[in-house]
């Protein structure tokens, strides 16, 4: 039996076929999950709808995660269609382009609040809204990046937001783990992947090119790598795992590779 047979997953954050959320959706579909998709804005609908339909999903709903009423509406529709939910994937982040260039010192108050609202609070808001619909042993998953732990050039306010997101994972895991349904909350910290979001960060092309030389496995990460890890974390195989940040970065987070002629 496939890992996610009989489970229903809502996926927020697919933008195109290069999105990490799309890699997760493909893995979930392969493992037998029933999928529902949410997108942000009419422009994205033209990309997301055919992708969702290619995986047999006809539940494709718009949602502005900065609006509680939008989130509530989407959850009502999800309950009407699916009854109960097993998995929610949050792959959403946003910061103003001006706040990702120049010194972090120059981030505006409004820019800071925007990044925190959409990139961080939206996960808490979605968790609160979906929790009443979740079956026992359900799973929530979000996406982060090592810029939460290290000062990465041009990541700026998004690094601060990701640090807050990882803290949210731990507190949500504590809250929802105490529920008798034992709902789990985890994050995946992926290595740099050429997605639509990453393309907006200055120097990202060079970073991705260099990554394959400095990761322990000496290769780049794919959306399929992340999808496979997500399938595990959201399956019953990971029933004892919660509050974790799981790195899918070819070992980059633990150190640099030794040179070929390094001595013992």
Brief overview:
This is Enoyl-[acyl-carrier-protein] reductase [NADH]. It comes from Candidatus Thermofonsia Clade 3 bacterium. By secondary structure, the protein is an alpha/beta fold.
Structure, explained:
Helix 1 crosses helix 8, helix 3 runs parallel beside helix 4 and helix 4 (109-130) runs parallel beside helix 5. The protein starts with 7 loop residues before the first strand and ends in a 16-residue tail after the last strand. The protein has one domain (8-248): Rossmann fold. The protein has helices at 20-30, 42-54, 68-82, 109-130, 156-177, 196-199, 204-214, 223-233; strands spanning 8-12, 34-39, 60-62, 85-90, 134-144, 184-190, 245-248. The protein has 8 helices and 7 strands. A 7-stranded parallel β-sheet has the order 3-2-1-4-5-6-7, with helices on both faces. The chain has 264 residues and is α/β, with parallel strands linked by helices. Keywords: Fatty acid biosynthesis, Fatty acid metabolism, Lipid biosynthesis, Lipid metabolism, NAD, Oxidoreductase. This is Enoyl-[acyl-carrier-protein] reductase [NADH]. The active site is at residues 145, 155. It catalyses: a 2,3-saturated acyl-[ACP] + NAD(+) = a (2E)-enoyl-[ACP] + NADH + H(+).
């Amino acid at each position: 039996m496939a890992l996610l047979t009989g489970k229903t997953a809502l996926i927020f954050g697919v933008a195109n076929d290069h999105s990490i959320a799309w890699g997760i959706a493909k893995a979930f579909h392969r493992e037998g999950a029933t999928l529902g998709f949410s997108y942000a804005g009419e422009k994205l609908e033209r990309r997301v709808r055919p992708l969702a339909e290619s995986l047999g999903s006809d539940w494709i709903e718009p949602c502005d995660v900065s609006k509680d009423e939008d989130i509530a509406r989407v959850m009502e529709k999800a309950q009407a269609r699916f009854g109960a939910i097993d998995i929610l994937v949050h792959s959403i982040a946003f910061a103003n382009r001006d706040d990702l260039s120049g010194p972090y010192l120059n981030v505006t108050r409004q820019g800071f609040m925007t990044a925190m609202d959409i990139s961080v609070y939206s996960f808490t808001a979605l968790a609160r809204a979906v929790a009443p619909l979740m079956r026992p042993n359900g799973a929530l998953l979000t996406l982060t990046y090592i810029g939460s732990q290290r000062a990465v050039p041009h990541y700026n306010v998004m690094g601060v937001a990701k640090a807050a997101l990882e803290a949210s994972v731990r507190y949500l895991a504590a809250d929802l783990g105490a529920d008798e349904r034992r709902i789990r909350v985890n994050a995946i910290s992926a290595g740099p992947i050429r997605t639509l979001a990453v393309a907006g960060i200055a120097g990202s092309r060079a970073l991705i090119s260099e990554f394959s030389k400095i990761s322990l496995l000496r290769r780049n990460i794919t959306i399929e790598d992340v999808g496979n890890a997500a399938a595990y974390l959201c399956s019953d195989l990971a029933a004892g795992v919660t509050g974790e940040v799981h790195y899918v970065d070819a070992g980059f987070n633990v150190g640099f590779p030794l040179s070929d002629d390094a001595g013992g």
